[in-house]
UniProtKB/TrEMBL annotation:
InterPro entries named among the record's database cross-references: Aromatic_CoA_ox/epox, Ferritin-like, Ferritin-like_SF, PaaA, PaaA_PaaC
An individual GO BP term: phenylacetate catabolic process
Domain of life: Bacteria
GO MF assignments: phenylacetyl-CoA 1,2-epoxidase activity
Any one GO CC term of the record: cytosol
Protein name: Phenylacetate-CoA oxygenase, PaaG subunit
Originating organism: Microbacterium esteraromaticum
Pfam families named among the record's database cross-references: PaaA_PaaC
Length: 325
């Protein structure tokens, strides 16, 4: 049973708040039955639902290549990967539901265009090499962002992340392997791989969110131990991971200013196009309209499945009632 602030008297709230603060301070998990500040609940619903929507919308750019994968083996792998993303969406919607929001409400917010999902999924996938670049860069960024979320203070979110990260790490390796195969191919194949890396590199850096001085949610989310690192810290970690892998692949990262700064011990990098990022967030990216339309149509076309499932549940309950009588 969920305990909300409305259930408690004022002195009980301060006791509950003290217990909450202690649990967070001692790296203990907050569970659905525990009291939590309303703002904590709201932040979690915001982040987890956006994350779930990202996984679901994120099926589309790769889904585009299932019918055109270059071999049966590649097709089977891609289908499994896209199905994994659907599974991640389901774990995440389930985690958000423990906070008192329904799946229907979240879905409605998404198809009405009122909910955010990751900027990255609003870019097109014109070539097979995009499957490699998405796996290497997008899943790579997702892992760097999500491994610390396995320690998120909210139990259902952190536990969902453990499984998600295991699967993402397989996804990343399959993307790397697609690019490696192309880079060992002919000139045209190598050019295709480099072109995909050129197009996905900057959007994958933007996935980590706005720079720290323009990230309104980071400070509070870190105090609550939902986030463990800032957006810029994780972006920096990601670039550090990519540089040696790009060398093995033989691809160039498309940032002429990228260099290791001995003094700071960090990579110095060129400026991300934040205007483009905020335009994508406002719904004006290259594929925003297409992604939402596809999701809306799929939801409408799936209405009969939801109705059939509800009817089956109703009949099962009736049968159980009759047997009990
Ligand atoms: N896109 O104050 P902050 C994947 C919004 S899963 C769109 O820094 P916060 C798997 C942010 O929501 C990818 N919006 O916010 C896969 C906020 O707006 P709001 C998704 C963004 O929450 C791979 C505002 O900007 N991963 O890739 C973005 O502290 C391949 C201000 O930002 C997650 O969701 C963005 N990139 O930090 C699937 C991970 N960045 O809500 C298929 C969990 C920021 O105030 C194929 N989420 N915004 O209106 C997080 O870690 C955090 O929510 C951040 C943002 C880091 C994304």
């Amino acid at each position: 049973m969920m305990t909300t602030t409305a259930d408690l008297a004022d002195d009980e709230i301060s006791d509950a708040e003290r217990v909450f603060d202690e649990l967070v301070a001692h790296e203990k998990r907050i569970e659905p039955r525990d009291w939590m500040p309303e703002a904590y609940r709201k932040t979690l619903i915001r982040q987890i639902s956006q994350h779930a929507h990202s996984e679901i919308i994120g099926m589309q750019p790769e889904g585009n290549w299932i019918t055109r994968a270059p071999s049966l083996k590649r097709k089977a792998i891609l289908m499994a990967k896209v199905q994994d993303e659907a599974g991640h969406g389901l774990y995440l919607y389930s985690a958000a539901q423990t906070l008192g929001i329904t799946r229907d409400t979240m879905t409605q917010q998404l198809i009405d265009g009122k909910a955010k999902y990751s900027s990255i999924f609003n870019y097109p996938t014109p070539t097979w090499a995009d499957m490699g670049a998405i796996g290497w860069l997008v899943d790579g960024a997702a892992i760097v962002n999500q491994v610390p979320l396995c320690r998120a203070s909210y139990g259902p979110y952190g536990r969902a992340m453990v499984r998600v990260c295991k699967e993402e790490s397989f996804h990343q390796r399959q993307g790397f392997e697609i690019l490696l195969t192309l880079m060992q191919g002919n000139e045209e194949q190598r050019a295709m791989a480099q072109d995909a890396v050129n197009r996905w590199y900057w959007p994958s850096l933007a996935m980590f969110g706005p720079p720290d001085d323009q990230s309104p949610n980071s400070a509070q989310s870190m105090k609550w131990k939902i986030k463990r690192f800032t957006n810029d810290e994780l972006r920096q970690r990601f670039v550090g991971m990519l540089v040696p892998q790009a060398e093995i692949l033989g691809v160039t990262l498309p940032d002429p200013e990228l260099r290791f700064d001995e003094e700071t011990g960090e990579y110095a990098m060129g400026e991300i196009d934040w205007d483009e990022f905020f335009e994508v967030l406002r719904g004006n990216g290259p594929c925003n309209a297409e992604r939402l339309e596809r999701r809306r149509t799929a939801h409408e076309e799936g209405a009969w499945v939801r109705e059939a499932a509800a009817e089956y549940t109703r009949k099962q309950a009736l049968r159980a009632e009759r047997q009990a009588a």
